[in-house]
Design brief:
Oligomer: heterodimer
Shape of chain B: flat
Order of helices and strands of chain B: HEEHHHHHHHHHH
CATH superfamily of the largest domain in chain A: P-loop containing nucleotide triphosphate hydrolases
InterPro entries (chain A): AAA+_ATPase, ABC_transporter-like_ATP-bd, ABC_transporter-like_CS, ABC_transpr_MalK-like, ABC_transpr_MalK/UgpC-like, Mo/tungstate-bd_C_term_dom, NA-bd_OB-fold, OB_MalK-like
Structural class of chain A: alpha+beta
Distance between the termini of chain A: 27 Å
CATH architecture of one domain in chain B: Orthogonal Bundle
Helix content of chain A: 10-25%
CATH class of the largest domain in chain A: Alpha Beta
Structural class of chain B: mainly alpha
CATH superfamily of one domain in chain B: MetI-like
GO molecular function (chain A): ATP binding
Keywords (chain A): ATP-binding, Cell membrane, Membrane, Nucleotide-binding, Translocase, Transport
Protein name (chain A): ABC transporter ATP-binding protein
Strand content of chain A: 25-35%
Largest interface: A-B, 26 and 22 residues
Order of helices and strands of chain A: EEEHEEEHHHEHEHEEHHEEEEEEEEEEEE
Number of strands of chain B: 2
CATH topology of one domain in chain B: MetI-like fold
Pfam family, one (chain A): OB_MalK
Largest sheet of chain B: 2 strands, antiparallel
Radius of gyration of chain A: 25 Å
Strand content of chain B: under 5%
Amino acid sequence: MSRIQIEGLTRRFGAVTAVDHVDLDVPDGDFLVLLGPSGCGKSTLLRMLAGLTPPSAGRILLDGRDITATPPRDRDLAMVFQSYALYPHLTVARNIGFPLRARRRPRPEVASRTETVARVLGLEELLHRRPRELSGGQRQRVALARALVRDPGAFLLDEPLSNLDATLRTATRAELTELHRRLGSTFVHVTHDQVEAMTMATRIAVLNAGRLEQVGTAAQVYDEPASVFVAGFLGSPAMGLLPGRIEHVEGSLRVLAPDVDIPLGGPDPEDAGREVVLGIRAEHLLLVEPTAAPRPGAALLRGTVRLVENLGSEEVAHCLVGDARLPVRGPRPLGLAAGDPVTLTTAPERVHLFDPASGRRLVRRPASAGTAAVSTHVPDLSAVSPS
Amino acid sequence: MFVELDAPAPVAVRAVPPPSRSARLRRAGRSLVPYLYLAPGLVLLGIWVYRPLVQTGQLSFFSWNLLPTTPMVPVGFENYERLFTLPEFGTSIWRTVVLVLGLLPFTVVVPVAVGLLARRVRGRAAVIYQALVFAPLLIAPVAGAAVWQWLLDPRSGAINQVLGTTTNWLQEPGPAQLAIIVITGWHVLGFAVLVVAAGLAGISDDYAGAAALDGATPGQVTRWITLPLLSPTLVFLVLMTVLLSAQWSFPLIDTLTNGGPAGATTNVYYLLWDYGFHSFDAGLGAAAGVIFFAGFGVIAAALVALSDRVTFHDN
């Protein structure tokens, strides 16, 4: 049972800042996924939690206790490494029992707990083998068993699924989720795989270049990405993004770009002329029959199909609108071929707007707050909001 | 009516005409290329290692004084019989065992201790430190021996002055053997430290990190994780020490003690050299060489077999 709080955690390697003032609050029992591309600092952040990399600045609190300077063995955390780090000279049984032997627990207790954990993870048959005699999936289980045997306060998982094949990864994902549900412990899981993040996390922390971009549930980070980075990183195909400009046309606001005209509704003349980045997810773009007359006032995007990808159940058409590529996803067949002109529409509430300079999401200030101005906004999703 | 879907139709393969004579030759030429690359090395190995080995075997059955004008007299196993009746043969083997045991601290124990302690030295400091440790190996053994001779001088030598003793280091049997061991150890220590450092660098940091999180103290990590994973390196160093100690010490013995006093520093290599090139009994020297070659071969095979059993490859 552990709550992990991180305050202003920073790690510099020479001139490079790998982790830059990260604040996070992981409540007890949370399954937090640290998500980001390679080199975003997620593994460094996890290693600082584990005590394997000392932070350059900031504090780590475990259940309110400052553990920033505590050596790893006194932190009551268990970690599964990307390489699994199974001790190659020890059998599976001795690998699993290692944390208990290191803590000088009596021999019968080590044996019985090792056996229990091995049974839970289906490793009884392998107890006398050495790590090199195991398959990738079996090694991953042994690493997990070694973490489980001690009943730690929290589990740190560093890309534990990245060395498994696709089928095994899907199965193990479900097992980890089930394990988390059963144990109710705090899990911090590092991955670059958005599917892992979306399916397993109770909350996702998206990192980019050492900075926290957004913390929220899977639905929040997908439906309301807090920045251009999050919008482009999550979703497959990635969200289509194109530069545009807010204009005041005939009493209402519209986003305009070459071959793009999307109504925003509402009379907010003070936003007129503002440059924005416009984002629309592939599944929210709809094809308009070329023969049908466009509904007056509807969002309209015109472009050309460059490529159509067949995903089995669906097709993705990559369209060139102005200078930007917008993917359109729909049930197969879309009836499009490369070179076809297309007219697209979308529901205005599905359109994401971002500030081109800061990259942060633009949201409407509620009408009750007075003038309906567009303001940069960081969703208040965690106790400590991202920097 | 349902009909079964056909399996994918077999792909029509057009038979390739049999290769012509020139094509066959070209292919043979291509398969020859790797052996051509190996040839120079194999030829040198044959000329400088295997031919002398065979010649030594032949020579051990002759009596010859190394003079080209003297005929070689075949004597059968007489050289071997003489060898086993000579007391110095047995004592030289024991002196070699003492030398190997005396060198193990310099080639295994101290390098492991230094390697473990020096892991925290990083960057430029590590390069300088390793260069310093490695330097003795770059000193020619004979030049090093000359300096040690001054240091060990019974009257004015620095060693006696520092220790406050009057030992005649190179002229008393016990101290002479000790001096040879220490000087040889000083010479090869840097090499052994570098080998250990390379072995330690090859062990992933993840193991120590995992063990630390699993609750192991730094001492437990060293004893339970680092040293077992270092075992391939340690076995290699033991193997090197057993097989090469006598050779490493040869230039020092030849310069400092000539195998003396009273044969106290005559190990097996010095003995066979002494037979061949001091006593000019080439047949006896060759017989000793054959015996030692066989003996070291057996020891090496045993150590290699042992290393396969005790080492765990980090994958």
